Amino acid sequence: xxxxxxxxxxxxxxxxxxxxxxxxxxxxxxxxxxxxxxxxxxxxxxxxxxxxxxxxxxxxxxxxxxxxxxxxxxxxxxxxxxxxxxxxxxxxxxxxxxxxxxxxxxxxxxxxxxxxxxxxxxxxxxxxxxxxxxxxxxxxxxxxxxxxxxxxxxxxxxxxxxxxxxxxxxxxxxxxxxxxxxxxxxxxxxxxxxxxxxxxxxxxxxxxxxxxxxxxxxxxxxxxxxxxxxxxxxxxxxxxxxxxxxxxxxxxxxxxxxxxxxxxxxxxxxxxxxxxxxxxxxxxxxxxxxxxxxxxxxxxxxxxxxxxxxxxxxxxxxxxxxxxxxxxxxxxxxxxxxxxxxxxxxxxxxxxx
Length: 353
What we know:
By secondary structure, this protein is mainly alpha-helical.
């Protein structure tokens, strides 16, 4: 709201740090398609691991914990929750599954936001409802004193603020006020400052960060838990949030510390994605299946180089072996000589180019 209002006016420049983050993320997103063409088994292992980490970490940031022995059962099974904490972890899992399943097709609307809150809060009385009383962010000092760290948007103004925020997201993307990834971080900051729900705002903000990432074509949150990265850098999260929220109500705040934090989380996720793909053991035959699927996907003639580009992580020798094996059984034929020769599937006479 107040951050996006700032950006709705002309933004003359962005900090150098922001530019570097955007450049790095642009490069990472450029590689994304190559990495997501790895074997389905490898990616499935990463998805399942990320689902567990996200459900546990996002709740643990808010002080909600469950027994380690119960985590896998709660995330992938269907047991009755033993207590309130287990109910909240299960609810967050349901919200994650909804977000992953619908991705860019799930609109960033008030209805979606309230529904995600309802899922994460389970059977509590005000699940999915905006706060009906003012709810400031309180901090307890080591000596026991209580002080207001941030005054959130009053309850009476919350619905209007959320309506404006949802509209701003659509307008910002359409009119390109700022780079979309900057808009994503700014929106997240505004949501946390509005603080629309009595409780559970942090968890919903992380789900919305994932959803908006999908809207912008960033798929990394499916394979690497953004919530776990935020938990690992929790001190920086609270520090930058406090820095960027000062003067927010007057529109005189500095959003860049928090913007940089969100971009840092996304960059870290992409770096880890590349690293962890190399650590997950590929099942026997996965690379062969990847090459065979790539051959079947070509509508006409293709070269060895074309096939290599379609099979990241597969060596040239492996590609050659699979291609020769397909030739032996009569599924493909070579149309020329040398390494640049064209190939095609048998019975496919469509001309190259």
